Amino acid sequence: MSTSILDTREQAPRSAPDPTLTADDLVARAQEMIPALRDRAAEVDRERRIPAETYRMLGDAGFFHILKPKKYGGLELSEHEHARVAMNLARGCASTAWVFSILSSDNMAILSFPEEVQDEIWGDDPYATLAGNTNLNPKATARKVEGGYRLTGQWGFCSGSDFSEWLIFNAPVGEAGEGHMFLVPHGEAETIDDWHPTGMRGTGSRSMAVRDVFVPERRVQATKDTVRKLAERRSLHPTFDTMWATWPSNGRFPFASCAVGAAWGAAEHFADTVGSSTRVANALGGAVRLADQDYVASEFAAAQGDIQMARLLIEKRSFEASQRARDRKESTEADIAREMRDNSLVTRTALRSVQQIFSLVGARAGSAEHPVSRAKRDVEMISHHVTLNWRQAAVRYLGSVA
């Protein structure tokens, strides 16, 4: 058993957010939070976790209720709002935006399980969240017993698990080793403090392990059945349009939004400070103002313009995905391939742009606590995520249009 270092799970449950909150309200709240997130970003990077206070702020703002049905106090908003909130939070702190994006997105995984499981998770606490890792661990074991399974295994990259009340793991079942999703209370798992990356350090993406933990049948289902189960559960939440979204969803840009938002934040910092910034003129000394250099103007204008194009593409594609869900239209292969391409494309754009800005800052950007240094490391780390593989996305996209 383990207890998170920054445990919020023992606090008294809160009432659900104001049900009249609108999409614009949520985006405005994310924007209002940016200064506080910037003030804490260096600490988050050093401590390798977001503060409990920040996590509480995310919940109080209603962000974890964006993709949640009304039955459990949710706001029943869309992937478009999810993407916009993530992008704005990342302007202040990419790690905070990532934790939000993961825990908010994982609401949809919960909704694929039976109603009794949804009640078990959210019935007494509408703020409960789910972290974990949905990649199959072939070394894990799930031994069938009466009423369920005994699960043993370890899963890495469990972003947001510092705070989540629940965990989801993918383990093989039966002779064929078919992947199954297991929902486990956080208190029945062990945290392994092995998260020491160069970027996105504050996501708390540590490994979690379970040792011979009993998981009842109701909290286990075949991974391949997730899409079908989500479709079956639509009748439980008939007014929640996002139940018709693709799963896993590229339309909400869960990871690319964090990359673009981080680059956006770096561009804002550079614009705010360039007027008073200098660089050493040459090897013999002296100084030049960055704002007086033509090359700085040219490089920054290009980088900032590329970031803006990436932002607009995320907003357009996430809106289109949300509109399909509102219209109860299933996404086609062409839709999915285009979204995968664009997730990868905007991340590549963000990476190139933040690297350009980093090169303009000069030696000062070598400090780990410099905002542009942190943004560069964060975007570089995000760019390696499996869902943002440009070559794979490009091949799939070509196949969808050829």
UniProtKB/TrEMBL annotation:
Keywords: Oxidoreductase. One of its GO terms (biological process) is fatty acid beta-oxidation using acyl-CoA dehydrogenase. Residues 37-120 form the Acyl-CoA dehydrogenase/oxidase N-terminal domain. The keyword Oxidoreductase applies. Pfam families: Acyl-CoA_dh_2, Acyl-CoA_dh_N. Belongs to the HpaH/HsaA monooxygenase family. This is Acyl-CoA dehydrogenase family protein.
